[in-house]
Amino acid sequence: MKAINDAHELEYGIKPEVIAKAPGRFHLIGDHSWFFKDKTLSMAVNLTVYIAISKRSDNNVKFYFIQLNERKKASVSSLKYKKEDRWANSLKAVFYGFLSCGYELSGLDITIFSPIPPAAGFGITSAMKAALVIAIKKLFSFKCSDVQLLQVLENGNRNFLHVQNYLANNYSALFSKKSNLLISDYSKSTWDYIPFDFEDKKILLVDTKVPSLSVWNEESICEPEYALLLGDLRERKPNVYGGWQYISDKTEINEVLSVVSEEVQRKLKSVMREHGDLLEAREGILNKDFFKLARAVNNSHETMRDMYNISCPEIDWLLKRVGELEPNLENTRNPVTCGRITGHGFGRCLYAIIRNCDYDNFLTKLTEFEKIFGFKPECYEVLPEDGATLVID
């Protein structure tokens, strides 16, 4: 708080009028199935982004990112996407979102404090937008409902940034609750909470620093015809969370998917498996059955690695070491640790849920990782956190 207050006053000569904060985030399961109206399981975490703002007397907007020591500028009356503005484009999208929804804005001085860079893949960009949304709402006394705030973000994403609207990102940044995970249901545009209570476990996020490489174009499966095919493979199940699940009859699945290439079949089947793993993970969390949760998480990584094809040898190596933290475990059906690739797109990051007693051993594995692969990973111990909130007003 002192750092962002002092930095804002030093940069602009005025104390901030409003400061808001929002959590980082990672998706445990379901981050690549949103297009098919499936579900995403997310955790907002205590990697906190702070946004400080104060009004200007003109229509100019100035951005100062403390950790990056970078400054950008824009104008409320002529917002433009500029490739060189990188992280600032996301904040400009928030202005665009408000303006497109009929709200009037004047210029602002904005300071951003985030120890984690936006490129890390831990939801930092979404956190920046969420914090700015509620800060602007407060500063201008806008009477915005949750639905209207989501519309602001959606308009900015779709029409300024020209990206798809990832509801799970917005929901987790705005509405998460401490000690809970959040499930986003894309078919209903709703979210739900699951208490996360495994006191003997640590949750670790690891930025491996391995460059993200897209080995195939993910948008190639985001076609309406493929969504229709998966729709044909759903069955209503009133006793299943969300009211439906994918069918399990392999013969029928193969018959329905026979009209597409083998590669597309593999990707669509991985989407189906993801949905099943998410439902299993949810049940494991609710019943405090870590074995069930861990199996679902590990299965999900195998699906992402073998069928969806987004992992890499470095991440696979590290996750294998996670599975070996208990070398004497005879029954592999009851894993005491789990982990999965995560992060934006074909991300460079992973998460691991391990026992408290395994922490030092895990850090040793990270040291080995650096010696073998030459990348120096960053590891963060995290906890489920609340969504965006005001700090001072």
Tell me the overall shape: globular
* Biggest sheet statistics: 8 strands, mixed
The average pLDDT score comes to 95
Q: What is the share of helical residues?
A: 25-40%
Q: CA-to-CA gap between the ends?
A: 13 Å
Order of helices and strands: HEEEEHEHHHEEEHEEHHHHEEHEE
Radius of gyration: 22 Å
What structural class is derived from the secondary structure elements? alpha+beta
Q: Counting H and I runs of at least 4 residues, what is the number of helices?
A: 11
User: Strand portion, in percent?
Assistant: 15-25%
Count the strands? Answer: 14
Extract low-pLDDT stretches: none
Give the topology, please:
Blueprint: H1 2-12, E1 18-29, E2 39-55, E3 60-65, E4 70-75, H2 87-100, E5 108-113, H3 124-139, H4 146-161, H5 167-175, E6 180-185, E7 190-195, E8 201-207, H6 224-232, E9 234-236, E10 244-246, H7 250-256, H8 262-286, H9 290-306, H10 313-323, E11 338-342, E12 349-355, H11 359-373, E13 378-382, E14 389-392
Parallel strand pairs: 3-5
Antiparallel strand pairs: 1-2, 1-14, 2-5, 2-6, 3-4, 6-7, 8-12, 8-13, 9-10, 11-12
Helix pairs in contact: 2-3, 2-4, 3-5, 8-9, 10-11
What would you say this structure looks like, in words?
The chain is of the alpha+beta class and 393 residues long. Helix content is 38%, strand content 24%. Strand 9 (234-236) and strand 10 form a beta hairpin. Helix 2 (87-100) crosses helix 3 and helix 10 runs antiparallel to helix 11. The mean pLDDT is 95.
